[in-house]
Write a structure and sequence with these properties.
There is one protein chain. With 102 residues, the protein is mostly beta strands. It contains one helix and ten strands, in the order ββββββαββββ. The chain has a four-stranded antiparallel beta sheet with strand order 2-1-5-6. Strands 3-10-7-4 form a four-stranded antiparallel beta sheet, with no helix packed on it. Strands 8-9 form a two-stranded antiparallel ribbon. It is elongated, with a radius of gyration of 19 Å. It starts with a strand and ends with a strand.
Length: 102
């Protein structure tokens, strides 16, 4: 069983071929492909964490869709001053499917 831990949009995700991952928005090339940098590679009993060997490892992914996350509401309030503030945020996300680990 081969899987890798990749750096995906500010976080690390454990992926294997065929898995679908939702990460922060990434820009794909013209064909809708993305290459993710590997942090760790597990190939059976062999675990690779050496930076020089991981530079040769490529994790390819195909962009399935761009979407937005759930709305997060932020509220600020200060007692006895009449200060109230409410803002919202929706994170830009990308859903990708891992196609190859070399």
């Amino acid at each position: 069983m081969v899987f890798a831990v990749v750096r995906a949009g500010g976080r690390q995700e454990k992926v294997e071929v065929g898995s679908v991952v939702t990460m922060n928005r990434v820009v794909a090339d013209d064909n809708g492909k993305v290459t993710l940098p590997a942090v760790m590679l597990v190939d059976g009993d062999t675990v690779t964490t050496d930076a020089e060997k991981l530079a040769k490892v490529t994790v390819s992914a195909e962009v399935l869709e761009d979407l937005r996350g759930p709305k997060i509401r932020i509220q600020k309030y200060k007692n006895k001053t009449g200060y109230k503030k409410r803002i919202g945020h929706r994170q830009e996300l990308t859903r990708v499917k891992i196609t190859d680990i070399k």
